[in-house]
Structure formats: structure tokens, C-alpha cells
Automatic annotation (TrEMBL):
It holds the Pfam family PBP_dimer. It comes from Marinobacter manganoxydans MnI7-9. Belongs to the transpeptidase family. MrdA subfamily. Binds one Zn(2+) ion per subunit. Its EC number is 3.4.16.4. This is Peptidoglycan D,D-transpeptidase MrdA. The gene is mrdA. GO terms for cellular component: plasma membrane.
Amino acid sequence: MPWGEFKDTAAERRLFQRRTLVMLVIVMLAIGGLIARMYQLQVVEHEIYTTLSDKNRVQVQSVPPPRGLVYDRNNTLLAENRPVFSVTLVPERVQGMDDTLAQLDAILEISEEDRERFQRRLQEPRRPFQEIPLRYDLNEQEMARLAVHRHELPGVEVKAELVRYYPHSELTAHALGFVGRINRDELQRIDPVNYAGTNYIGKSGIERFYEEILHGQVGYQHVETNARGRTLRVLERENPVPGEDLQLHLDLRLQQRAHELLDGRRGAIIAIEPDTGGILALASVPGFDANKFVTGISVNDYRELSDSKDKPLFNRALRGQYPPGSTLKPMLAVAALDSGATTRDYTIWDPGHFRLNQGGRVWRDWKRTGHGWVDLKDAVAESCDVYFYEAAVEMGVDTMHSYLSHFGFGEDATLDVSGALSGLLPSRDWKRAVRNEPWYPGDSVNLGIGQGFMLATPLQLATATALIANRGEWVEPRLLKDIKGDRPVEEFLPAETHEPLKLKNPDDWEYVVETMVEVMHGAKGTARGAGRGAPYKMAGKTGTAQVFSLAEDEEYDEEEIRERLRDHALFVGFAPVDNPKIAVAVIVENGGSGSGTAAPVARALFDSWLLDYGQGDSALVSGVGEVAD
């Protein structure tokens, strides 16, 4: 039978039409579903997905403010900011942290210290997508190597930031302090919003005390990023408010001169301007390079500093607590006169020793043969110990404690000097509380020459000397001179709390000043060598503080004593006498005598300030021959 008889064309057509209709319906339904979904995404949920898209594309970044600069009184820059390039990671964008760190280690040689510091920061609370620094201060070769591999390292960026730099680091380290990386404890107390993106904070000194105004206000910027987190462009920016620039009373020339005069010897020098209380020099020798602490000092460098027997990290000017020795005698002279324990005309016979009672303990004078008949002026000029032994017993500890506290001993009397210690001004209550013993008359004898329990810092000695220079008028020591903006200085300085020290007879101030003038210019003055030939009149007092005690009849032999057990050499003074421009305190550890070691240092400092730097009054500094030796 022919093939055509078996083919049903009509049936096949109907079948094809049905299948076509079904497929058309399916296609139309699919197209309808796509259109419906597109409508939902593009119209109904437009704002939702626009926001999600922007979150992937646009990031909010904090912009840390430039830290305020610090200048000395002559506008010499003491603390500035310099650009430093660092490697940072955004953990949310890093694909495999361990592998990324391994790659960076191969490219840049990441130290174990940097890695450990990064891991600590990684665990600390932070804002999402906030960068965490890994390596600081990249050089050009390291940046070039990293640029070649950047496409392999999502979430890794090279970031430029301004980092603190101290151009005169060793000279100013103890005065300015330094900044360093923010640690865990500091993170708990700072404002997380204002410090977003900031890696550094003031750790000590001026940097710490004025952190609030030096830091400034953080800014923000909206940036567009690609899928790897690379910044493509800045969409919007709110600029940060830079920190305020500060001007200090500090004079870099005098600061450098103080370091030169100490000449590598361990010691400290404080110079104060009596009129304002401004600290002109704050030198502690040896010093250290504060720049090493900014981005993180290495373990080896820190160990070298901390293990040094010369203790360069120790701020002797503010935290060194020493027996003031005979430098306390002018303050005790004020106390003795005003309390009535002595008079200007009262004289004693000094045989070279003192006893409280017959057959009792012997307290010796520094001059073993004694000074003979002496009054108060002679006692200060020649530093007669026996006179002050007797005056101290006459006054008693309560009177001495009362007057010495008015001079600022036993407290931190500064306005803005961070880290200053308060020394030790002993009293009956103190000894009972600490030693569970009563106060003995012999304790008063020792206090009469600045020995025994008494401890003072060089800053306290300079402050007390400035009070004498001001004839009882109190001006608290301060470093801040001006804020280079519209904000007043008084807004940031604590209120002054000290009242003037008013004496029953105000002329006693001039008399005590005259006794200090005799020290420098009198025929028997202990520092007459340092005062010789000066074209101005100066007042001062030498001192020697024992590092260890001698037996009752033991003599001091400097040559037999190791250098570090020798006496400390001290000096306090001011100049010119009638219109003081500078008051100083000098201590040279294990320097021997104050007259032979510390007084010449102070005289050289006076000369530099009054003559070389032109700060003296021409009416007072007019000729070499006007002052008798």
C-alpha cells in the first residue's frame, strides 16, 4: 500500500498547534513573571536596593585632623607633622588574613612586633571597614614592590598620614613629652567618634596635657570603591578641623644652652621667668630621641634605654626627688625671721658642731673648724649649718612645715606640667603615719639644712626661688604662653590657687635677698667665684646633698667614694636682683660641691639669658665694673 495512506496530516497540524499554544503560554507567563519581578525590584523595592548598592559602592571614611604644632617663645618649631606612608588592611575586604599577611611578609619583611601589634588592634573594638595599620614608614623601594602586587591583595592599601616629628628631639623630649599609638586602655576613655581614624595620642608632657586642643576635630568623606575595595573617587567631604597651634614660654636657645652646660653629666636645670611663671628651660640630662616612640619603638631600642644606668627616660627636672640641702636655707631664713625664731641682729658662736644637749649626738658643720660669730646674713652667705640647726630647733617642725608649704614644697604647684611629683615635706603626722614614730628634735635639726626626710624636685626649688625673687608674690609655673587662634589661654589653664606669702615685716624679703646676694658677691660667699665679674647683681644659694650618710666622726673623702655615691651639687638663684628676669634651679647628680659645680652652670645660664639673648634690663646690666666681687 502507498506510504501516503498511513500519514494523517491534519492530526499532526492540530498536535503542533496545541504544543505551540502551550509553549506560547509558558513563554508569556515567564515574560510576565520577569516583568513583575523587574517592577518589584525597580519600582517597589527601589530604595532598598539602591541603599544596598550604595553600601557596596560607597564607603564613609573618617579623616583624622592634622595635629596642632608646637612653637617656642621665639616661634621656633618644636613639634611638627611629617608625611609617613604605611600599609593598612581593611579586614572586611581581606580574602584570607593569614595568606595576606604571609604575602606582605615576603614583600616587606613584617617584623614580629608589627605582626603582634596588628593582631592586638584586630581584636580591639573598631568601626566597620576601618583600616588597621600593619607597617609604618615605608621607603620608596618598599612602596614600589608593594605597588607591583597590589592587584593580588584585596583590602590592602598604602596610606599616607601625618605623623608627629620632633626636630630637636633630645633637647625637648622631657619638656614636650611625645605622642604614641593609642593602646587598649586609652581606647576605653577617648571619644570613639572624634578619634576615628586617629592612631596617635599624647602620652606625656605637653602632648598629653593639651591633647584636647592639639588633636582637633575629625572629618568624614564618602568615597566610591570598586569590588576590591579600592577607592575610585571622593563623592563628598567634610574637612577635619586641625588642632590648635601652641606657643610655649620655653626658649630653645636656653634649652640647648642648659644641655651644653650639663655637658653629659646627669642632672637637671629649670629656669623660670618670675613675672609670668613661664618655664624658660626644662632640661633633664641625659635625654632620648622621642621620635622613636611615635610609631612604636623596637624592643631592643627600648631595652637599651630602660636598662641604661644613666636612666635617660627619667625626667629628673620634674620627677627627680632630692634632699634640697642648703638651697633650702633662704626659705628657712624667711620662716625664722617671720616666726620670730631669729632676728637680723641675732648672732651665734659656731664652733663647727652642734649638740641638742650636753653629751648628746653631734651634728657637724660642713666647715669643721666652724665659722665663729655669725648672724643670719653670714649664715646664708657662708652656708653656716650650725646657725640653721639652732633656728630649726627654735622653730620646730610645725612652723617649718607651714612656711615651706607656702613655698610650694610637698605639692605639685604647676599649672600645666604633666607628670611632676610633689616631693616630700615631712611633718609630725606624716612620720607617725609612715614610720609609726614621733617627731624628734633631731629630725628638726636635719630639716634645718634640707636633709633628713625632706625631698624636693628641681622644679619645686625653682618655684620657691621665684617666690623669693617676686618678694612673696605667687605665679604658678606654666609652659603654655599662647594659643595661635582665637581661644584664650586661660580657658585651658587651671585656676591659680596660691595666695601671696605676706610677711609681718615685708622688708624681710629684701633682707633675705641681700643674704643671697652675699652668697654670690660677698667676700665670704660660697659662690663668690661664680659671681665674680658679673655686669649685673645676682642672688643665689649653693647646696650639697648627701647620697649616703657618714658616721658621727667619719670624714668625707671624695677620692675614695665611687662617682655615683658622691654628693649631689645644687644651686638656686635669680638675676638681676632688683628686676628679676630669670630664676633657676640646678642639680648635678654626684657633682660634688654646689659652689664648684652647680653655681658656675647657673652663672653661665644667667649670662646667656641676660647678655647673649638680650633679655636683661639695660639699666641693671650696664657694666662689668658696677658690681663688687
